[in-house]
Amino acid sequence: MAADPPRCSDSSPASAGTMPCQNQQPASGPAEPAPPAAHKQLRFADSVENDIRDAGGSTGSSPASSDGSEDNGSSAAQQEQEEQLLAQQIGPQLKVLPINDQIRELQTIIRDKTTSRGDFVFSADRLIRLVVEEGLNQLPYTESTVTTPTGYKYEGVKFERGNCGVSIMRSGEAMEQGLRDCCRSIRIGKILIQSDEETQRAKVYYAKFPPDVYRRKVLLMYPILSTGNTVIEAVKVLIEHGVQPSFIILLSLFSTPHGAISIIQEFPDITILTTEVHPVAPTHFGQKYFGTD
Prior knowledge:
The protein is an alpha/beta fold. The chain has helices spanning about 40, 50-55, 70-90, 100-110, 115-135, 175-180, 230-240, 255-265, 285-290; strands at about 95, 140-145, 155-160, 165-170, 185-195, 200-210, 215-220, 225, 250, 255, 270-275.
């Protein structure tokens, strides 16, 4: 009886550059996995620092076919090279969420000018939750052993005490609920910063923190990093209240290269966590989220 033709493995990476199953040739031994398409592989990264390590520090261009069929891959490769150059300037302080199709869809919905406010808020809340969850991974843990209902000893971890959130009003308040959903008892402070009408410089109008904020790890929340000026002023206020820059983790959804570089150059010890570094940031976020657009 003739053997059945080989089937495609579910674990093989799926992408537009993968050869169709019916065109694959049978092999006597275990089939080697097809190399992932460039435009998919280049989008996945634990952080921008990891991108450089995985790529071996190379910033060369990806080859493209003469008929333009690899335009999408070349575009993704160009964005990857820009992120690598940015990472070389900033270092490990800039952390980018691992990119997948779910996050890309949420980013697309938020950037789309035709998105309804209901869909915008729903997608923004989902993306905020992902950022908050990753931000909590940056906080310190201690080992903890508990007893299960069956009497089994389980060795796990728990948060160390001394964490708080600080939102930069007004757009930063959109991230507060996502933080409370993960840490229901966490204390949250607020900072109000606006541009001065005469000098056009960021000016602090209001700041309220927990009294012992200087002893806490601070999750600073601001969804859009455009110029970075607002965040820089907010960090200065926290430092005036005794907070060490190394204790500050900035949670954002979108960042421009200029914004990230400005913040890190001013405060080299701060950590920035975002989902995307792109020259064009969705600056309409606050107006769309709160319905004031």
